Amino acid sequence: MAPPTKSGPRYDNFIQVPKVRVIDDEGENLGVMFTREAMEQANDKGLNLVEVSPNADPPVCKFLDVGKYRFEAQKKANAARKTQKTQDIKEVKMRPNIDTHDYDVKMRNVNKFINNGDKVKVTLRFRGREMAHQHLGMDLLKRVQEDVEETAKVEAFPRLEGRQMLMVLAPK
């Protein structure tokens, strides 16, 4: 017997079970038959016997053109990969004594990122004596949380790491 194929479904001589359930090229169920007999019928039609459901008992095989079957499977996988959306983490940096206009600009960016389906990490950096007024930072992050309440949920609540306070927002 030949060794099993590295990729894709098993076909023809790579199918090692004695009996298989066979479906012909029109989709008709031919029932359970010996693998050798099914291969001969497939070869008569100029097709291969391809294992489509190897975990069934007995395995289900179909009369197909292996090359065409692999090509279609690859096209489906590529289409699925194209439609897949990866989620990035965007970062918005602020300071505890941020001005209202600057805050509005930052919030516009936060909303834009969330509407694009990305997560947003809001970083609040403290300098020097600002560390003594951490309550101002916490108030600012609560304000951010309230401003994006309709579009985003808080994934990681505000926490202090060294001289910066972090909060992660994710789209709802």
Kindly describe this structure.
The model has no long low-confidence stretch (mean pLDDT 90). The protein has a four-stranded mixed β-sheet with strand order 2-1-4-3. With 172 residues, it is α/β, with parallel strands linked by helices. Helices cover 34% and strands 31% of the residues. The radius of gyration is 30 Å and the shape is rod-shaped. It has two domains: 12-82, Translation initiation factor 3 (IF-3), N-terminal domain (Ubiquitin-like (UB roll)), CATH 3.10.20.80; 89-171, 2-Layer Sandwich (Translation Initiation Factor IF3). It holds the Pfam family IF3_N. It is found in: Cytoplasm. One of its GO terms (biological process) is ribosome disassembly. This is Translation initiation factor IF-3.
**CATH-level-2 architecture of the largest domain:** 2-Layer Sandwich
CATH structural class of the largest domain: Alpha Beta
Q: Residue ranges: pLDDT <50 for 5 or more in a row?
A: none
What percentage of residues falls in helices of 4 or more residues?
25-40%
Structural class: alpha/beta
Ends: how far apart?
55 Å
What's the number of domains?
2
The largest beta-sheet arranges its strands as: 2-1-4-3
Q: What is the number of helical segments per DSSP (H or I, 4+ residues)? A: 4
Structural Rg? 30 Å
The CATH superfamily of the largest domain bears the name: Translation initiation factor 3 (IF-3), C-terminal domain
Topology:
Elements: E1 19-23, E2 29-34, H1 35-44, E3 48-53, E4 60-64, H2 66-83, E5 89-94, H3 100-115, E6 119-125, H4 134-147, E7 152-161, E8 164-171
Parallel strand pairs: 1-4, 5-6
Antiparallel strand pairs: 1-2, 3-4, 6-8, 7-8
